């Protein structure tokens, strides 16, 4: 099969690097390779690129450049925020949700802090009343993802921020609010002032930037202890030599979001696909109809294993996934699908289809042509 | 002949030299092989660990063959490991590869190839298929037909054994000539999910209850550490002085290990067996050759019925739980599990 006939419908797991991002990154591998912390001209040239990158990100987030921390991944950004705040507190209590990415869920669970995990409803939304009930005098951090990576649920971040703000007025110990926006950044408003968050995480490779780089917005007044020590870069909160090319890359990728935010078009294509797929017998949509990430669709097909669908589609040149790529090696059903009430069997029959900037209607049509026969075939084989 | 319908072949790959070369041969013959790496059960399984997976994936990528990893841990645990443990608890000496071939390996590959709209399945086993029968391979030292007796005869039309006409040495040479990652990997042996010592493994899953060692007249000679760790005919490791002693029987009901000094006590002619499977319809009685262990030579005898066999000359240490496998010349006729 020729490369160009392959169809990539797994943009939630990663995206290709935009050629404009590649172009901006290129000189910083060899030509402008200096260490941004060096005194000489090589260093200064690189330093300028870091500063400019920081400003671009700050512009996107509507924050002070000093509040932008470059990290090695979104996972690392989440760790720095969550563990940092926990370390800085004597008796911390953290609240998160049952459908967070493992980068948040595992970090909270392993931190040693007391924590509460909020259940979600059948579409994946958290309930503000539940959150309010879980807040106690020790609560120091609430971390709720902006949009879910498997089912696309967009959480009411502004409302949560409002609630926390109100709570903070009547108490001494401040509750910080962090959101993992790794999936959201590509399509949703990430103005931290409008959202009212104290922390926000972005990933490079989900927005047509490079892998191996992330950004943490951390509001200046948030007290967090460093969890990585060394040369004191990033105000001592994230030591390690600046990765100039990747930082330039994520900044360019973020800058391009302004002109590339084709939210409506993406949504339209995705909705068309959902409507067509739901015509297949025994197909159901996991996650919400509204308030859903524009590029995400997640289905279950009665009596069919999701993994088998993914393999057959791959044979036909179409890349999809059963859920999170990070957990695709595990036998366990998705914790997200279980949290929205799916039985093990239905959770194992899930297929996530995530469109991207380059996805065309023609590609979706080809997918829609192949999928029903694939499902039918698998049902025949399993005799259901 | 290779046609569009049978072009696609599901190949079981382990990252070892045999399945890697099998994949390459199929590709050269004009098939469109698809590599399936099966993740079996066991923390330190020496057939399907991360190194094996890495080699298998690299081999596929190098050959331009699709690679898929299949997690069959749950099924393997149920169909192979649980059977293995239960057999030991019953005082038998199981052969897990038989169960794996039938219930896991070939079953999984056939399921996948059906999904992939193909018909053929291949593995790197040393065996041949001729006239709808499994026959012994060119390399008699590597003959793996013993482990195949339980396969469903309906499947044979669609199985390919690409290594059947090759010697192991040729397979190795081929692998190193093309620089396969598996070229220097030594053969897998023993039970894949048991790391070192069998009794250490068994101890983790079943209760080993010490009991008496007796001679065949019921005289107590010592104490054993738990019946499952002993095999019929075993000499070493019984722990009695004044020997040598041989394990003659396991009396599971009384938890007694019966031993003998007389090697001839272990000789038997008659073998009854169960769970039989034959690749063609046979008329009993029938003169055939039989094998009672993987490494045992084939010996003449008469297949009296579908569950009874009698050797011409008595055989030593026929162990319940092992397979008895029947041959006519080079043809594998079938087999069963020794009672």
Description:
By secondary structure, chain A is of the alpha/beta class. Chain A has two domains: 3-16 and 262-382, Aspartate Aminotransferase, domain 1, CATH 3.90.1150; 19-259, Type I PLP-dependent aspartate aminotransferase-like (Major domain) (Aspartate Aminotransferase, domain 2, 3-Layer(aba) Sandwich). Helices cover 39% and strands 14% of the residues of chain A. In chain A, the strands form three sheets. In chain A, strands 2-8-7-6-5-3-4 form a seven-stranded mixed beta sheet, sandwiched between helices. In chain A, strand 5 (139-143), helix 6 and strand 6 (176-180) form a beta-alpha-beta unit. In chain A, helix 1 runs antiparallel to helix 8, helix 2 (41-61) packs parallel to helix 8 (244-260) and helix 9 packs parallel to helix 13. Chain B is α/β, with parallel strands linked by helices. Chain B has three domains: 8-177, HUPs (Rossmann fold), CATH 3.40.50.620; 207-261, Adenine nucleotide alpha hydrolases-like domains (SH3 type barrels, Roll), CATH 2.30.30; 267-338, Beta Barrel (Elongation Factor Tu (Ef-tu), domain 3), CATH 2.40.30.10. In chain B, helix 1 (17-29) packs across helix 5 and helix 3 packs antiparallel against helix 4 (96-115). Chains A and B meet through helix 10 and helix 13 of A and strand 3 and helix 4 of B.
Protein traits:
heterodimer; A: 384 residues; alpha/beta; Aspartate Aminotransferase, domain 1; Aspartate Aminotransferase, domain 2; seven-stranded mixed beta sheet; 39% helix; globular; B: 339 residues; Rossmann fold; SH3 type barrels; 3 domains; five-stranded parallel beta sheet; 6 helices
Topology, element by element:
The complex is a heterodimer of chains A (384) and B (339).
Chain A: E1 7-8, H1 19-25, H2 41-61, E2 68-71, H3 74-87, E3 93-97, H4 102-110, E4 114-118, H5 128-134, E5 139-143, H6 157-169, E6 176-180, H7 192-195, E7 199-203, E8 214-218, H8 244-260, H9 263-277, E9 283-285, E10 296-301, H10 306-315, E11 318-319, H11 335-339, H12 344-347, E12 350-354, H13 361-382
Chain B: E1 8-13, H1 17-29, E2 32-39, H2 50-63, E3 67-71, H3 73-89, H4 96-115, E4 120-122, E5 128-130, E6 133-135, E7 159-160, H5 168-177, H6 198-205, E8 211-215, E9 220-224, E10 246-251, E11 256-260, E12 267-278, E13 286-291, E14 299-305, E15 308-316, E16 323-328, E17 331-338
Parallel strand pairs in B: 1-2, 1-4, 2-3, 4-7, 8-11
Antiparallel strand pairs in B: 5-6, 8-9, 10-11, 12-15, 12-17, 13-14, 13-16, 14-15, 16-17
Helix pairs in contact in B: 1-2, 1-5, 3-4
């Amino acid at each position: 099969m020729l490369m160009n006939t392959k169809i990539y419908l797994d943009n939630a797991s990663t995206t290709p690097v935009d050629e404009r991002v590649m172009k901006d990154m290129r000189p910083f591998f060899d030509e402008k390779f200096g260490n941004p912390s060096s005194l000489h001209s090589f260093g200064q040239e690189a330093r300028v690129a870091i500063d400019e990158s920081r400003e671009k990100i700050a512009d996107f987030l509507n924050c002070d450049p000093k509040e932008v921390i470059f990290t090695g991944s979104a996972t690392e950004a989440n760790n720095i925020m969550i563990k940092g705040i926990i370390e800085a507190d004597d008796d911390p209590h953290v609240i998160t949700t049952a459908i967070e990415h493992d980068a948040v869920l595992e970090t909270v669970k392993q931190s040693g802090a007391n924590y509460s995990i909020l259940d979600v409803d059948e579409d994946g939304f958290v309930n503000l009343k539940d959150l309010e009930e879980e807040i106690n005098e020790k609560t120091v951090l609430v971390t709720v993802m902006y949009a879910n990576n498997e089912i696309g649920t967009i959480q009411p971040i502004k409302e949560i921020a409002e609630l926390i703000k109100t709570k903070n007025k009547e108490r001494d110990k401040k509750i910080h609010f962090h959101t993992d926006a790794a999936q959201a950044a590509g399509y949703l408003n990430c103005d931290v002032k409008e959202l009212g968050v104290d922390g926000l995480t972005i990933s490079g490779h989900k927005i047509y930037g490079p892998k191996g780089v992330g950004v943490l917005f951390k509001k200046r007044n948030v007290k967090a202890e460093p969890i990585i020590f060394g040369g004191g870069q990033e105000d001592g909160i994230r030591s390690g030599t600046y990765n100039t090319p990747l930082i330039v890359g994520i900044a360019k990728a973020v800058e391009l979001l302004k002109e590339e935010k084709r939210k409506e078009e993406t949504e339209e294509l995705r909705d068309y696909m959902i409507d067509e797929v739901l015509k297949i017998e025994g197909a159901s949509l996991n996650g919400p109809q509204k308030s859903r990430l524009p590029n995400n669709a997640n289905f279950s097909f009665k009596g069919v294993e999701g993994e088998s669908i993914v393999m057959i589609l791959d044979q036909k040149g179409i890349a999809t996934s059963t859920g999170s790529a990070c957990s695709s090696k595990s036998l366990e059903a998705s914790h997200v699908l279980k949290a929205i009430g799916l039985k093990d069997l239905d959770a194992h029959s899930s297929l996530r289809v995530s469109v991207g900037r380059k996805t065309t209607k023609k590609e979706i049509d080809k997918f829609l042509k192949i999928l029903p026969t694939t499902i039918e075939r698998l049902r025949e084989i399993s005799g259901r | 002949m290779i046609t569009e319908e049978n072009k696609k072949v599901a190949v079981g790959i382990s990252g070892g030299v045999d399945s890697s070369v099998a994949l390459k041969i199929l590709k050269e013959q004009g098939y469109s092989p698809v590599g399936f790496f099966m993740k079996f059960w066991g923390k330190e399984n020496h057939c399907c660990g991360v190194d094996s997976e890495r080699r298998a994936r690299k081999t596929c990528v190098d050959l331009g063959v699709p690679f898929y990893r299949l997690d069959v841990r749950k099924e393997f645990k149920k169909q192979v490991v649980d059977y293995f443990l239960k057999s030991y608890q019953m005082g038998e000496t199981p052969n897990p590869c038989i169960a794996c071939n039938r219930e896991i390996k070939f079953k999984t590959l056939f399921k996948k190839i059906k999904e992939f709209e193909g018909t053929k399945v291949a593995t790197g086993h040393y065996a041949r298929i001729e006239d709808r029968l499994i026959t012994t391979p060119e390399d008699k030292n590597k003959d793996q037909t013993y482990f195949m007796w339980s396969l469903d005869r309906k499947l044979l039309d669609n199985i390919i054994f690409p290594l059947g006409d090759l010697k192991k040495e040729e397979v190795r040479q081929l692998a190193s000539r093309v620089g396969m990652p598996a070229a220097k990997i030594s053969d897998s042996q023993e039970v894949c999910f048991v790391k070192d010592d069998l009794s250490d493994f068994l101890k983790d899953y079943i209760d080993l209850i010490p009991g008496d060692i007796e001679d065949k007249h019921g005289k107590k000679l010592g104490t054993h550490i738990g019946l499952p760790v002993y095999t019929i005919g075993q000499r070493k490791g019984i722990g009695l002085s004044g020997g040598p002693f041989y394990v003659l029987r396991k009396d599971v009901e009384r938890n007694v290990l019966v031993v003998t000094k007389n090697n001839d006590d272990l000789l038997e002619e008659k073998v009854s067996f169960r769970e039989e499977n034959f690749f063609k319809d046979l008329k009993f009685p029938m003169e055939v050759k039989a094998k009672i262990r993987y490494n045992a030579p084939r010996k003449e005898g008469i297949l009296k019925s579908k569950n009874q066999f009698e050797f011409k000359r008595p055989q030593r240490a026929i162990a319940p739980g092992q397979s008895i496998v029947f041959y006519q010349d080079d043809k594998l006729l079938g087999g069963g599990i020794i009672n």
